[in-house]
Structure formats: structure tokens, C-alpha cells
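=== RUN LOG ===
request id: a7f3
mode: sequence -> structure
chains: 1
length: 131
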Amino acid sequence: GAFSGWKVILNVDQTKEAGFRRLLQSGGAKVLSGHSVSLFKEATHVFADFSKLKPDDSRVNVAEAAAQGVNCLKPEYIADYLIQDPPPPMDSYCLPADESYLQNNTDLGTGLSQKRKALGEMSRVKRSRIH
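=== RESULT ===
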């Protein structure tokens, strides 16, 4: 199958997880249950979409997974891998490791407030152009 040899950890919206699981398994991938740090030793790929997760959903530690040699990618890579010949470079689909670092860091205040401030400044600029 197209995904033979892949050992995958999924961290996506619950409503889509079953579909991704079926697709990957039908292509020969083994989909691992959960996304604990202990699974990183076994996994070859992590597919995560943090933007679609609810605030209380657990998130995979991308920085830790990447440090253990796991390919941490956006789920869009799965379809593009099947459709494009040759398959697209993984670099275009990499997950940012700093996002999971912010999720797991006890000092959340600084990183997130800067992010919000930057987004707020951008939206103010956009509004001023419109008016």
C-alpha cells in the first residue's frame, strides 16, 4: 500500500479522526492509539491539526516527537502524498514545534500574549486600511 511502513500518531479533530484512520490503514499504515511521548519511539509520522482541536483536547508534543526523529506534518500531506507524483517534499507540511512548546510550557503568559498582541496589531492595520 501507499503508506506501508508508516506508524502514525493522529492528533486531529475527533469528527475526522476515524476517516483519517481508515484511509491510512487501507494504505497499509499502522495507526497508533493515543499520542503519548512513549509512542514517539515507535512512530514514523505525526499528523496534527491544532487549529481544529477544542481548547481542552490534548495536544501532541511536536518538539519532543521531532527530537526523536518523527515526521510531524499537517494532515494535508496525506492526500497530497497520494495525488502528487513524485510525492511532495515533507518540508512544506512541517508542524511548528514552538506551538506545542507553548501548550506544554508552564510560563504560558509571555508567549501567548505576544502572539495575541501581534495578531491584534495586524487586525488594527487591516481595519485602518478599510476606513
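=== NOTES ===
Strands lie at 7-11, 30-32, 45-48, 71-73.
The helical segments are 14-26, 62-67, 76-83, 97-104, 108-130.
=== END ===
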